UniProtKB/TrEMBL annotation:
It is a multi-pass membrane protein. Belongs to the CPA3 antiporters (TC 2.A.63) subunit C family. Gene3D superfamilies: 1.10.287.3510. Its main location: membrane. This is NADH-ubiquinone oxidoreductase subunit 4L. The keyword Membrane applies. Keywords: Cell membrane, Membrane, Transmembrane, Transmembrane helix, Ubiquinone. It comes from the Bacteria. The chain crosses the membrane at residues 6-21, 28-47, 67-91.
Length: 121
């Protein structure tokens, strides 16, 4: 179970970083969301993964640590607020600049960048 958990955290982290490096704002927002999910899973795993652990002390022999769960709950709220702010900021940038590129500039058109050289050879 731990190997599958680590694999999922790794895939979420890789996907989040890959999407954050894109040039448009929507993939960046999606990448930040996936990174926040990966961090939340990492924080949750710091309290040890137990299948039969009780959340209340004294009801079972083994119990789970409530601190990582409280940290994850706080991180979910902060992450949601951050994503909402980034979406509003991206919408404002789209309205002001007319495009949704992160740097505000459109990349050079591929048709204009590659000049036909067939007739010159």
């Amino acid at each position: 179970m731990e190997a599958l958990y680590v694999f999922c955290v790794g895939v979420l982290t890789f996907s989040g970083i890959f999407l954050c490096l894109r040039g448009r704002t929507f993939p960046v927002v999606l990448g930040l969301t996936l990174l926040s999910y990966a961090v939340n899973l990492f924080l949750f795993s710091s309290g040890r993964l137990r299948l039969d652990g009780a959340a209340i002390l004294g009801t079972s022999e083994s119990y789970t640590d409530p601190l990582p769960q409280a940290l994850v709950l706080t991180a979910i709220v902060i992450g949601f607020a951050m994503i909402a702010f980034v979406v509003i900021l991206a919408m404002r940038a789209r309205a002001d600049l007319g495009n949704d590129f992160v740097d505000g500039r459109e990349p050079p058109d591929a048709d204009q960048a590659i000049k036909p050289t067939r007739g010159k050879i």
